[in-house]
Amino acid sequence: MQQLSGSLALSSSGAYMVPNVEAHWAGVESPRVRIDRESDFRQVLAALSGHVVVDTRRGLVVQGDSLELLRLIPTNSISLIVTDPPYHSTKKANITGDRGFEVDEHYLEWMERYAQEWHRVLRRNGSLYLFCSTEMSARLEIEVGKHLRPLSHITWTKPNGPGFDGWKGKMQKEALRRWYPHSERILFFEQASLDHERRSSLGALLREARDQAGVSAHELTGAIGAYGKVNHGGAVSNWETGRNIPSREQWAKIVEVLEATGRVRDLPAYEDAVRPFFLSKHVDFMDVWEFPSVRVYRGKHPAEKPISLLSHIVETSSYAGDLVLDCFSGSGASLGAAVGVNRRAVGIELDPHWATRSAERLVRADDAIAVTTVRQLKARRDQKAAQGAEPLF
Length: 393
Description:
The protein is α/β, with parallel strands linked by helices. It folds into 2 domains: 37-163 and 181-196 and 281-387, Rossmann fold; 201-273, 434 Repressor (Amino-terminal Domain), CATH 1.10.260. The protein contains 15 helices and 12 strands. Helix 12 packs across helix 13 and helix 13 runs parallel beside helix 14 (352-371).
């Protein structure tokens, strides 16, 4: 039996062998304890305690300048950010901050300050969804991309029926000087390893641990049984470059192999290492989305996003129990969506009126969870949407 780097051994048959991990760690407390999301939530609540409008079992709304309050949130505590800042280019008087910047550069500088904080508060496997206008999307992607890794430039189209978009029907088409803005953009980023510009955080974590253990990609691929037909080191290489991810079982084997070398001890659990992204043929998996706008109702926020769209984001890019942050919570639709699919939510809102509305929606959503099931809530939500009524949450 030939000894290789990092305490992996090669048997006479040519297969890599995993050392006796149980004997290696006998009497040693396992360092792989999944971080408690409830603990994260309580730490965020404590940090923002002087600004709380309401806190519930699964959510929290605070009122104030979101950039200042964002700086109070503990590092590595947020799993997903879904946020809808002022678009700036639309210049709407009824949206706080939409007319707050004289030139584009000031707005972009302001947004980059947010990106710095988003990078800090996001967990290593966290994600950001940033709503923006078509006009500002390219420049925003560059600014935010200095701190987070851009993955998708999503186009949200609105197949609205009669009564949703009266201006489109009334306006004089001959007066147009550019294409009518029938879509918005959603920029999708993942947490980035700033030392490796094109590498995901999982890839950077795996490469660093593998180098520390002294195990090559070829050796690790063989040890966990992930050999391909052609490229024997390809599975690990693909994981390190972010092309795909290991399964839960493969990650457990990776941890076992690397920790067995005695040189690596603090690898995280799967839910703290691998970015959640749950898609299938049964849901919209492309980067052009069709969701109708929120039909006008009394008290509607002028920039309110549909619950169906927000739920799609939250369910795709977070684990159950994860903590979701919205820095511009408005009427609280994102908070209701998060709580409605068994996540925790933190909303920040500058305007006192809308902070109260966010709080009301969060309370309704959280109370509803206690007395009914998520499936029942979805059915009620869809029924209300079809009737054009104000959403329950």
